């Protein structure tokens, strides 16, 4: 992995949601951040580095991240917002057939026939950094659009930051995959644990060990 730091600004182009937080009758995403793995896998897919498969591969986050020539910080925003709750309908006849085990699950969890989600709105700006390969230099473009969210329904535009960043936060859960124990400033989810703010050079020195 090259010792290159690319500060980035991410702007949401369309709403997106994740099943992050439980709310009455549904789920809401975390509005103040976009995860490092979300950024890494979204960027890898846009660059054409993912295989076309008929089924999802077995989860191996360390192996998959290790194969990428870059590491990512968490993208954060100082102005988190969510849209109003949106009702979604899951048509089990179309999505899962009429097997009884699916119908038995419709009264609970995220497979209810009707459930609510809350999405991050368009035009939200997040900041962070990519360490290693500079994707903008690689393809000779000043903007890259990645897909994020449930079913990859959301789009986020990445651009090199014009102003220097004060610092970034890494994901201690990702560091743990590589055998690194980092302090946690905020525990959001099991796979999203924000470190205290690091300078870009401190963050680069840390992610350099994630190999």
Detailed description of the structure:
This protein has a domain at 5-83 and 119-167. The model has no long low-confidence stretch (mean pLDDT 88). The chain starts with a strand and ends with a helix. It has 211 residues and is of the alpha+beta class. The strands form four sheets. The protein has a five-stranded antiparallel beta sheet with strand order 5-9-1-11-10, with helices on both faces. A four-stranded mixed beta sheet has the order 2-3-8-7, with no helix packed on it. It has a two-stranded antiparallel sheet with strand order 4-6. It contains seven helices and 13 strands. The protein is 22% helix and 27% strand.
Features:
single chain, alpha+beta, five-stranded antiparallel sheet, 13 strands, 22% helix, globular
Q: What's the arrangement of secondary structure elements?
A:
Layout: E1 5-12, E2 21-23, E3 26-28, E4 33-34, H1 36-46, H2 61-67, E5 70-72, E6 75-76, E7 86-89, H3 92-95, H4 100-104, E8 114-118, E9 125-132, H5 135-139, E10 144-148, E11 154-160, H6 172-177, E12 186-189, E13 192-194, H7 200-207
Parallel strand pairs: 3-8
Antiparallel strand pairs: 1-9, 1-11, 2-3, 4-6, 5-9, 7-8, 10-11, 12-13
């Amino acid at each position: 992995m090259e010792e290159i730091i690319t500060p980035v600004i991410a702007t949401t182009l369309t709403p997106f949601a994740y099943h992050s937080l439980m709310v009455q009758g549904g789920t809401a995403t975390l509005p103040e951040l976009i995860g490092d793995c979300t950024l890494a896998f979204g960027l890898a897919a846009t660059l054409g580095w993912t295989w076309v498969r008929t089924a999802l591969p077995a989860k191996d986050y360390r192996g998959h991240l290790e194969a990428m020539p870059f590491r990512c910080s968490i993208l954060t925003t100082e102005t988190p917002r969510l849209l109003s709750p949106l009702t979604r309908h899951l048509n089990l006849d179309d999505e899962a057939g009429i097997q009884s085990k699916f119908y038995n699950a419709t009264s609970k969890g995220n497979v209810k026939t009707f459930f609510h989600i809350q999405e991050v709105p368009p035009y939200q700006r997040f900041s962070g950094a990519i360490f290693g390969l500079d994707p903008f230099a690689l393809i000779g473009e000043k903007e890259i659009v990645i897909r994020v969210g449930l079913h990859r329904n959301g789009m986020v535009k990445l651009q090199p930051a014009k102003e220097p960043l004060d610092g970034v936060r890494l994901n201690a859960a990702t560091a743990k995959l590589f055998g690194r124990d980092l302090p946690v400033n905020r525990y959001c989810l099991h796979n999203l644990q924000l470190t205290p703010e690091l300078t870009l050079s401190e963050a680069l020195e840390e992610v350099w060990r994630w190999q």
